[in-house]
Write a structure and sequence with these properties.
With 658 residues, the protein is of the alpha/beta class. The chain is built from 27 helices and ten strands. It folds into four domains: 275 residues, Na+/H+ antiporter like fold, CATH 1.20.1530; 123 residues, NAD(P)-binding Rossmann-like Domain (Rossmann fold), CATH 3.40.50.720; 36 residues, no CATH class; 73 residues, 2-Layer Sandwich (Alpha-Beta Plaits).
Length: 658
């Protein structure tokens, strides 16, 4: 393997940094920046970097970490909760798209093995691009956003069978296709079952020991060891490296260390993924495009039109309105990053010719470049093509108006999460009417079933706020954390009601001045209010007069929290958020008949010596907080313990075994 020389790395990094900054300024996905960087510096562009085997080998690591994070985010309960759309709509879209695209490839002379892979590649959409664009446009919780995410979940999952299939298709020379696939399937089941059974038994105790050291670099080394070991095992078995990484991520996602791993693995994943996309860009032969561009444009048009129309038809079969189904189709019409993963794997087994590779590669890249424009203007296109889409939105506004009928001098609550619900409860206790708007359909449905004044609506839109009775409301509260959405809501509110009090909730003080400048009457940063409350309690316990405490709090608030804004971050980049696996937490334990702690006093167990406190005891469905040390425990009691994971494990042994 030819090594990558130092100046090549410098050139690659320099071009990538410039293009990522440019694409970020243009508000385009950074995946496209890496692809363009590869096209520019690669052997078919400026030829600053030759097509080295070493770059492709490093790109494999990017694919490994991509599949590890997919496995880490794999959630069986989430799939079950969304099963109709994930397996119904998502399954039908992937199956039909794969068959149609594969059949077309076969008609144009591609071998059956290669046609199967091409069908699977073109059926995929870009999770990274779609999620980024939906989030920027505040549409991830909209109806079309919800359906698009369901289909993307299935596509992420179906990549795994394709990764098993490709080595079987490419390594079955002289054997029947069915025999090759059968042997590959059997081998995959045996290898994956072995990894899964052994890994699940050893993983949790191993990471308990690693986390107890409280060394971030040690924890990171253990994660890398797990990922690469699983990838090596599947690679040695003749399967894909990425397949083992996916399984390692899935096992890790079932442990309490998932969030810690996500935070630690992110820098490695992003850098290696960037190299992966650069390598893909280096494969594009710009010289060949002079002859192939008509085929490429035809292929891109076919992909975008067919996938849009297919999801439109399937969406309507699954009960969507035509406008919502069309927007979902437009959002998912492009091809995604997993197509590159399948292409890279297929190239190792020479499943199709260089000409086919170039046509497919260019088509995928062009469809991804078109995605930002299509997603951004999907609403405009849908209004033009489906007149009923506007009527459906009008019916939603009519539902909001119906809920707001008779409401006068009420409070509009934007967001009905935990804070919004607490705020609504306090207003209800004082007899002040309120109307809440939220974009979570399940939350809205449950709240309305309970008789709460909550409706589905996007508070960043002027017509929604107008329908909610903004002209005659007495105040507005923004209870969610999204600063960009809050700024849009403030802009709309100040146009209609420049005089109305508006209170905004934020996580910290980062956007405090910006929100105040946009028209917020008061901004409540939760982290700073929490520190004020904590300081007040501490001073009170130390005997400081209440009048002094009130004055301190008033001074800080009057000074717009300026006194509390500076702090030393130290090494803890998470700023105290509960993402470290070894931080203290609550844990409940049920005492079975015959447990050591049954018929004993809490004081006799000496749990404090193990670093654990008993915060509550639930007995017979009744919860008693802060139990006395003289409380005698009985069989069936549920103890709520507080402590670090290793201390909780020790306390559980004491309670059950002594």
């Amino acid at each position: 393997m030819e090594p990558i020389v130092f100046h090549s790395i410098l050139i690659l990094l320099g071009v990538a940094v410039v293009l990522v900054a440019l694409f970020r300024y243009l508000r385009l996905p950074q995946i496209l920046a890496y692809l363009c960087a590869g096209i520019i510096v690669g052997p078919y562009g400026m030829a600053w970097i030759p097509d080295l085997e070493g770059t492709r080998y490093l790109a494999e690591f990017g694919l490994v970490f991509l599949m590890f994070t997919v496995g880490l985010e794999f959630s069986l309960p989430k799939l079950i909760a969304m099963k109709n759309m994930v397996f119904g709509l998502g399954g039908a879209q992937v199956l039909i798209s794969s068959l149609v695209f594969g059949f077309v490839a076969w008609i144009f002379g591609v071998a059956p093995e290669g046609a199967i892979v091409i069908g699977g590649m073109l059926a995929m959409s870009s999770t990274a691009i779609v999620m980024r664009l939906l989030t920027e446009q505040l549409e991830q919780s909209s109806r079309h956003g919800h359906h698009a995410i369901s289909v993307l979940l299935f596509q992420d999952l179906i990549v795994v069978p394709f990764l098993i299939l490709i080595p079987a298709l490419g390594g079955g020379a002289g054997q029947s296709v069915w025999a090759t696939l059968g042997w590959a399937l059997l081998k995959s089941i045996l290898v994956l079952a072995g990894i899964f059974l052994v890994g699940r038994r050893l993983l949790r105790p191993f990471f308990h020991e690693v986390a107890s050291a409280k060394l971030r670099e040690y924890f990171m080394l253990a994660v890398l060891l797990l990922t690469l070991t699983a990838a090596w095992i599947t690679g040695m078995a003749g399967l894909s490296l990425a397949l083992g990484a996916f399984l390692a991520g899935m096992m890790m996602g079932e442990t309490e260390y998932r969030h810690q791993v996500e935070g630690d693995i992110l820098p490695f994943r992003d850098i290696l993924l960037g190299l992966f996309f650069v390598t893909i860009g280096m494969m594009l032969n710009l010289g060949a495009m002079r002859e192939l561009w008509p085929w490429v444009l035809l292929c891109v048009a076919m992909i975008l039109v067919f996938k849009t129309l297919l999801i439109l038809g399937l969406g309507m079969l699954f009960g969507m309105e035509a406008g919502v189904a069309l927007r979902t189709g437009l959002v998912l019409s492009q091809v995604g990053e997993f197509a590159f993963a399948l292409l890279l794997s297929a190239n190792q087994y020479h499943l199709f010719s260089e000409v086919v590779t170039q046509i497919v590669l260019a088509s995928v890249i062009l469809s991804m470049m078109a995605a930002p424009l299509i997603v951004r203007y999907s609403g405009y296109l849908t209004k033009r093509l489906v007149p009923g889409y506007t009527r459906a939105r009008d019916s939603n506004l009519a539902a909001i108006r119906a809920e707001a009928v008779g409401a006068h001098r009420h409070v509009i609550i934007c967001g009905y999460g935990r804070s919004g619900q607490n705020l609504a409860w306090m207003l209800e206790q004082e007899g002040i009417p309120s109307l809440a708007l939220d974009l979570d359909p399940v939350r809205v449905r449950d709240a309305r079933d309970a008789g709460k004044p909550v409706v589905y609506g996007d508070v960043t839109r002027r017509d929604v706020l107008d329908a909610a009775g903004l002209p005659h409301a007495t105040a507005l509260a923004i209870s969610f954390y999204d600063v960009s959405a809050a700024l849009k809501t403030l802009e709309t509110t100040r146009l209609l009601r420049p005089d109305m009090p508006v209170i905004v909730r934020t996580m910290d003080d980062a956007a405090l001045e910006k929100l105040k400048a946009a028209g917020a009457t008061e901004v409540v940063p939760e982290s700073l209010e929490g520190s004020l409350m904590m300081g007040s309690h501490l001073l009170l316990l130390m005997g400081v007069p209440v009048s002094h405490i009130v004055r301190h709090v008033r001074d800080v608030r009057t000074d717009r929290y300026r006194m509390l804004r500076g702090f030393f971050h130290g090494e803890d980049l998470d700023d105290g958020k509960d993402t470290h696996a070894y931080q203290e937490r609550l844990h409940s334990i049920t005492l079975p008949q015959g447990a050591y702690a049954v018929d004993k006093l809490i004081a006799e167990l000496h749990l404090e010596a193990a670093g654990v406190s008993v915060s509550a005891v639930r007995r017979g469905g009744i919860r008693g907080p802060e139990p006395s040390p003289e409380t005698r425990l009985t069989a069936g009691d549920v103890l709520v313990l507080y402590g670090a994971p290793e201390a909780l494990e020790k306390a559980e042994k004491i309670l059950l075994e002594g």
